[in-house]
Amino acid sequence: MRTRARRTANLAFAATLAFGGILSAAPGCTTNTCVNGSCTVTFKDGARETTVGGLGDLKVSLTGVDGVRARVTIGGTRATLTRGSRQPVGAYQVEATEVTTEKVVLKVSR
């Protein structure tokens, strides 16, 4: 009887570990908020890609971070943005307002 209870407990524990591992490997999150054709896009916890509906389903990807610089692809155009600078990327104006290894915040407008 004890062996069966112990086996069930071990199986439950193993399932919990496996499920927790799946959750920890899940991609990070992105948020985007748009007002009057200008959108703030936030990549957190390893997120790498999002679609911004407020700009006509614009695809925005974060491809890397080097210190205060973020490498991005916006609407198919690649660029490197330095925190605090604003520059054109394709048909959009983009500013990287925050760049860390944990979080990147971009302001994108037409």
Explained architecture:
This protein is α+β, with helices and mostly antiparallel strands and 110 residues long. It is built from one helix and nine strands. The strands form two sheets. The protein has a five-stranded antiparallel β-sheet with strand order 1-2-9-8-7, with no helix packed on it. A four-stranded antiparallel β-sheet has the order 3-4-5-6, with no helix packed on it. β7 and β8 form a beta hairpin. The termini are far apart.
Write the layout of secondary structure elements.
Elements: H1 2-24, E1 29-35, E2 38-44, E3 49-52, E4 58-66, E5 69-74, E6 77-82, E7 86-89, E8 92-99, E9 103-109
Antiparallel strand pairs: 1-2, 2-9, 3-4, 4-5, 5-6, 7-8, 8-9
Compact summary:
The chain contains 1 helix and 9 strands. It is of the alpha+beta class and 110 residues long. The longest helix is centred in the N-terminal third of the chain and has 23 residues, at 2-24.
The SS-based structural class is alpha+beta
Topology pattern, helix = H, strand = E? HEEEEEEEEE
Q: How are the strands ordered across the major sheet? A: 1-2-9-8-7
Give the overall form. elongated
Gap between N and C termini, in Å?
A: 69 Å
Q: Helix segment count?
A: 1
- The Cα radius of gyration reads 20 Å
